Amino acid sequence: MTATNTSLPEPVPARAATEKVVIPVTGMTCAACQSRVQRTLNKVPGVSDAAVNLMMGNATVSYDPAAIRPDALVEHIRATGYGAELPVADQTAFEEQAARDTAQTEEFDDLRRKAIVSGIAGAIAMIVSMPLMSRVGMGAHQASGASGDPFMRWASRVLEPLHRAVMPWLYEVPVWTITWTLLVVTIAVMSWAGRHFYTRAWAAFRHHAADMNTLIAVGTGAAFVYSVIATVAPAFFTSRGLAPDVYYEAVIIIIALILTGNAFEARAKKQTSSALRALAGLQPKTARLVRAGSAGDEEVDVPIAEVAAGDLVLVRPGERLAVDGDVETGESAVDESMLTGESVPVEKHAGDRVIGGTINRTGALRYRATTLGADSTLAQIVKLMRDAQGSRAPIQGLADRVSGVFVPVVMSLAIATFVVWFVAGNVNGVTAPAVRAFTAAVAVLIIACPCAMGLAVPTAVMVATGKGAELGILIKGGQALQELGTITTIALDKTGTVTEGRPTVTDIVRAPGVTMTDDELLALVAAVETMSEHPLADGIVRYAKERGLTLATPTGFKSVSGRGAVGMVDGRTVAVGNELLMLEHTVDVAPLGERAAALASEARTPMYAAIDGRLAGLMAVADPIRASSRDAIARLHDMGLEVVMLTGDNERTAQAIARQAGIDRVVAGVLPDGKVAEIKRLQAEGRVVAMVGDGVNDAAAMAQSVGIAMGTGTDIAIEAADVVLMRGDLRSVPQAIAVSRRTMRTMKQNLFWAFVYNVIGIPVAAGALYPAFGLLLSPILASAAMAFSSVSGVMNSLRLRRARFA
Fold this sequence. Notes:
By secondary structure, this protein is of the alpha+beta class. The protein contains 30 helices and 26 strands. Strand 25 (about 705-710), helix 27 (about 715-720) and strand 26 (about 725) form a beta-alpha-beta unit.
């Protein structure tokens, strides 16, 4: 088998003629916001798929450019009440990440500042309002304190006596002075620290929608309006036998607690993208170029943006390589661990490729700049990670469906809570039933938290893809991340996957009656193989050059996928490949059949050569098994997975390799379409299959399954894959599966606790525990619980950063 990756009989399945755009969206604060924008975009004619990410604050839209333009998509988003702008043109992945980091830092600083100020204001308001609990009457504060609200009971029984002893003068201040002072402070906090809750709630209302801001705004707004009436017109309450209680301190503390939770959440969200930020930070700011001057070569430091393809770059020991390139002179060891996860530096010599952002450890190198800017390896990795972190895992669908109806349901429950408490209070002769009903309804509004559901999956995806990148595993999205954990069967290509992919010629056998020498036969075969990119072909060419042979340039080259190659060399037709290729050219291989079988049983791949239609000889090529393959396959077995090898090589060679590597089953002699057929057969048995490969002839099989590409492979294979292993080491496969399984557990935990929190919290806030235990929940405690719920999910996802995946 040779020359199999220059053509592909069965192409990778064609995708629809769609384009993709990532649109920044501002103003989203919870899962309900995300759900509404996503639902709107998916209804737009011409949109094939839309995924809105609350964590990233963007919408990834696949659309038909003939049906709709990106600017129209922006208008559809704006029509839902959220801000949207087209992405900045020609912005590199590094610039995008820097802008996002700046925005996240500004958001965190703003929330932290507002939380601290409102928290201080809330503490002062609590101290100032303490005398009102004993002087206003049996209103809401005393009623709830006596009736089971843990917070108010603690405040009235513990804090008030202490407060009276420390600040007795405050109890001499007129009530109206205290209430009007609290009113002014509350207005200041609501209009500055809490302003965005009310503006966003109003925007949602104008667009006939509701979100988390609606719940906060209605809850705190109702408490504020109630308090203002009690302050401005207390007779309205006293004439009805009610105490003119005020809730100013509750409003301020609720806002402070929610802002505190938002600040912790913003900080945690920033930490989820630390791996991406670290990758973007690898890009040097300047490059040292070597330019010809009047006095010889001169070294000039220039900004990285001014480097052009073909420039000669110099890097000294200990410096970071500025751009991608090909080494011209020098030898060194380069630390590529930040990109591949491989801790051992890689030796570099003339002709080797180097990657910008890696660290030169020992010698000095001069190299020619190749791919730059957005096309550089580092920029492509950063972009791939950003796209992956902005994608959705299928498990998110359940949270999206719940979020779509969550807020209206909660508001209905709050109304029902008020009605039940008010009616029950009147029937049982409870003091101030309207006040108690009002308190319970506000608690229901405040405790409900759609944020936890919206953050449960995206935070885990972001942390997991970042962790994968640290291990040299690039996972291309939430769906790939989820599917990895469900795999039951691993299908492996042989050459370059199980084996090193650097084969060498071990035997040259001439057919009976052939008079040419071994070197003459090798020169003809190697000349044809110079046009192929297959590892076996590369081994033959390299062996010929090592023997000092001069190779002619072939003409009429033709690759026959899964069989070999044919070309004209010095006027002679040369065919080199497996037995199937020989049969196509009616060449009898019987004279060398036994020798070929013997070589194959020794894990050497026999390749026949025919010249002008007659058998000329065969060459055996050995490709040693990677040192890590046996260990990797043993780990896959320990994870309960079946391992199958799919190869175009002959049965004897494949079985010999499989025995050495510990592979369960071999399917040999298959072409690319045969690999696809075998994967389909396995899938028909109910198995979830992953295909691991590195060549063009593996791309179709990868597209049919969960594709895992070796980073040392071809661009087509990497493009078709769902996961890319930067190290080219099979041990990364069990690592990737372990990351997926651990992440899925984290996602399920986050979703479980998000649902449980709301399922338990809302009834408790409504007073479900009151009949049995006499317990109520104050709006202040409800706000604290709400803040904790969303932060806890993010913190649980962050645990993935510290997890070890051996």
